[in-house]
């Protein structure tokens, strides 16, 4: 490969941080990839519908209310939750942001 610049590991930046969410438990059903703050999941069609998630990078706060209100769950890089009922958060999340 010409003019190759090695892709060096870099500190996490907001632009690269990612959390995947699913509408069903066990990482099943429709998946949505979220890579930035989202104050209103109605826009993504997944309001009050997320049932499982996996954090690729970044520390995220998940809120029951829109615009980051009624915080109830935070998750860290590498964390995954197969069933949000275990965190009292099934079908409740309405906004997500890095925290
Ligand atoms: Ca909600």
N-end to C-end Cα span: 39 Å
Q: What is the β-strand count? A: 7
Which ranges are low-confidence, i.e. pLDDT below 50, for 5 or more consecutive residues? 8-12
Task: List bound small molecules.
Answer: calcium ion
The helicity comes to under 10%
What tags apply to this protein structure?
99 residues; three-stranded antiparallel beta sheet; 35% strand; binds calcium ion
Give an overview in words.
Pfam families: Crystall (PF00030). It comes from Micromonospora qiuiae. InterPro entries: Beta/gamma_crystallin, G_crystallin-like. With 99 residues, the chain is an all-beta fold. It has one domain: Gamma-B Crystallin, domain 1, CATH 2.60.20. Helices cover 0% and strands 35% of the residues. It is built from no helices and seven strands. The protein has a four-stranded antiparallel sheet, with no helix packed on it. Strands 5-4-7 form a three-stranded antiparallel sheet, with no helix packed on it. Strand 4 and strand 5 form a beta hairpin. It is globular, with a radius of gyration of 15 Å. The site of calcium ion has 4 residues, from loops.
Task: Describe what is shown at a glance.
It is built from no helices and 7 strands.
Fold blueprint:
Elements: E1 18-24, E2 28-34, E3 52-57, E4 60-63, E5 71-75, E6 80-81, E7 95-98
Antiparallel strand pairs: 1-2, 1-3, 3-6, 4-5, 4-7
The chain binds calcium ion.
Calcium ion binds next to loops.
């Amino acid at each position: 490969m010409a003019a190759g610049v090695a892709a060096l590991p870099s500190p996490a930046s907001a632009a690269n941080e990612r959390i995947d969410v699913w509408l069903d438990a066990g990482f099943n059903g429709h998946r949505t990839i979220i890579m930035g703050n989202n104050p209103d999941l109605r826009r993504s069609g997944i309001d009050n519908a997320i049932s499982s998630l996996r954090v690729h990078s970044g520390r995220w706060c998940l809120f029951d209310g829109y615009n980051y209100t009624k915080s109830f769950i935070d998750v860290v890089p590498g964390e995954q939750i197969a069933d949000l009922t275990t965190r009292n958060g099934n079908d409740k999340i309405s906004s997500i942001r890095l925290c």
